[in-house]
């Protein structure tokens, strides 16, 4: 790990943005319309600049809770799946409406991890991504929460969009994953429990020592905590891709990140090799 405040050489053309529930739902349970609108504005602007953008959005269960005026996430998986199905349709409706406002089309992809493990389903999904991106349409991805376990005993896992976004970044050969959370970046200890925690600006290697700094989730809606974000970053660093973890309280931070400003935590291999990508770097 090393600290640096210099501008970053972030040269990305195909970008995945992952937004967590905590950036879409207020702690009160109300929907954060401002963030949904700003996210639509920023991503539409990037498309207008010629970038290719994929959005991985959580929030189905959070929006489902809101729709049914529930304050607590139910314990049973089936009840959570039902909530996700209610919330997902509302969430995509809100995204459609806001993106439409900025003249941007979107398409919805509900995925499970194992889709990428099987050559045929993987190819089908990648074809869909490619076709949407070619047509300058933003794929909006969430985990398919109503398919927790299927008959074929695939290794479907419920509720972790951090790693799903890393898989999507990797499989679509994207240059950069921007992960928006409820925290400014990766700290040397859980800032929620330790006010003296310090932000780490750059991480170039992830090992057990790094994982030891990570605690669990912050908000009552979040699921993964820092461990799943580090697993995502580890995968991407190993593939010589980049990830920036930043605060999603204002999605316009995405512009700052792409301008190379030192916001959040930049996960990048120290010496990045050229990767075959879709434009620059
Ligand atoms: N070392 C750490 N640095 C930053 N955040 C940490 C760390 N360890 C644990 N956390 C917690 O992880 C939370 C973010 O994960 P999570 O609640 O799952 O958010 P999201 O909904 O964005 O996925 C932070 O709010 C923070 O409380
Ligand atoms: N797929 C679920 C949430 C999955 C998830 O990883 O949530 P989060 O930790 O907020 O990114 C949903 O849409 O509610």
TrEMBL record:
ATP binds at residues 18, 181-182, 223-229. It is found in: Cytoplasm. Residues 13-247 form the Aspartate/glutamate/uridylate kinase domain. HAMAP family: ProB. The keyword Kinase applies. Its main location: cytoplasm. Belongs to the glutamate 5-kinase family. This is Glutamate 5-kinase. It comes from Secundilactobacillus oryzae JCM 18671.
């Amino acid at each position: 790990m090393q600290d640096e405040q210099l501008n970053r050489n972030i040269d990305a053309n195909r970008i995945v943005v992952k937004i967590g529930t905590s950036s879409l739902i207020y702690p009160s349970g109300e929907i954060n319309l401002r963030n949904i609108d700003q996210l639509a504005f920023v991503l539409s602007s990037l498309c207008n600049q010629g970038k290719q953008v994929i959005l991985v959005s959580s929030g189905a269960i959070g929006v489902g809770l809101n729709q049914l005026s529930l304050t607590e996430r139910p314990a049973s998986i089936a009840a959570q799946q039902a909530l996700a199905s209610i919330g997902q349709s509302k969430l995509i409706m809100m995204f459609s409406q806001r993106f439409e406002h900025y003249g941007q089309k979107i398409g919805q992809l509900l995925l499970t991890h194992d889709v990428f493990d099987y050559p045929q389903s993987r190819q089908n999904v990648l074809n869909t991504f490619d076709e949407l991106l070619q047509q300058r349409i933003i794929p909006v991805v969430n985990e398919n929460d109503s398919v927790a376990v299927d008959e074929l005993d695939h290794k479907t896992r419920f509720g972790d969009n951090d790693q799903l976004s890393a898989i999507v970044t990797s499989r679509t050969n994207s240059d950069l994953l921007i992960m928006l959370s409820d925290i400014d970046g990766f700290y040397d200890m859980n800032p929620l429990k330790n006010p003296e925690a310090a932000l780490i600006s750059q991480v170039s290697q992830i090992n057990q020592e790094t994982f030891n700094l990570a605690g669990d989730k912050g908000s009552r809606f979040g699921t993964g905590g820092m461990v799943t974000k580090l697993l995502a970053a580890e995968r991407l660093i190993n593939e010589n891709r980049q990830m920036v973890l930043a605060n999603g309280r204002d999605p316009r931070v995405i512009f700052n990140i792409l301008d190379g400003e030192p916001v959040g935590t930049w996960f990048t291999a120290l010496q990045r090799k050229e990767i075959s990508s879709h434009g620059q770097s």
